[in-house]
Amino acid sequence: MRVAEMNWMQIEAQAKRDDRCVLPLGSVEQHAYLSLATDVILSERVAQEAAEPLGIPVFPVLAYGLTPGFLNFPGSISLKMSTYAALLGDIFDGFYRSGFRRIVLVNGHGGNSPALNFATEWLDRHPDASIRLHNWWAAPQFQAAVKAVDPAASHASWMENFPWTRLAGVAMPDTLKPPFNAAEYQAASPAKRREILGDGNFHGLYRRPDAEMLKLWQVGVEETRAAMVENWP
């Protein structure tokens, strides 16, 4: 259930019935020919579809994240690490005050991974709570399904090209993007990284048939749903 469709009284009653809630984490950053909000769109959608049959409330996506490597691509917005930690802390505090004790972070962007370190610090002050960070696109079942289709898959490639992340009227290359020198990229400034990446696709084809993508999506939804249910401490 979407928190946008609930009022405070419903949230109060829900937290008494079930102390789980979900926060999608995204990023506004370059995705080659796809939407700048690809990570926002995917994390929120997979979280909502996964949580719906469980009746777990999904809060609005935290759209901005940590993406300093893409700063030289116009439209890419990156928070400072201190800003991100402070923002997460305020949000976690709000969840806690509302009665939620089990928090699922459905993350759509690899750069947001430091959120788990901050969450662990926060949990030290709230030992009766627990927080799970689920990197939905990097989870084992989804990655296995991706590799079974095409192992040449990465940021802004076909792997993130769903009907809801592509842009109307934007044509994409019908070619395979070759891999770049990863060691050189990791050591480079944002300006140099843009030069290395070119259009922003890391590696692979730009698009695959929607029938394949929808099957992959269902794997991601089901694996995300399992993360909301299984193995809570």
UniProtKB/TrEMBL annotation:
Signal peptide positions on this chain: none
Coiled coil: none
InterPro entries: Creatininase-like_sf, Creatininase/forma_Hydrolase
Cofactor(s) of this protein: Zn(2+)
Keyword Lipoprotein belongs to the record: no
Pfam families: Creatininase
GO biological process: riboflavin biosynthetic process
Keywords attached to this entry: Hydrolase, Metal-binding, Zinc
GO molecular function, one term: metal ion binding
Family according to the record: Belongs to the creatininase superfamily.
Name this polypeptide is given: Creatininase
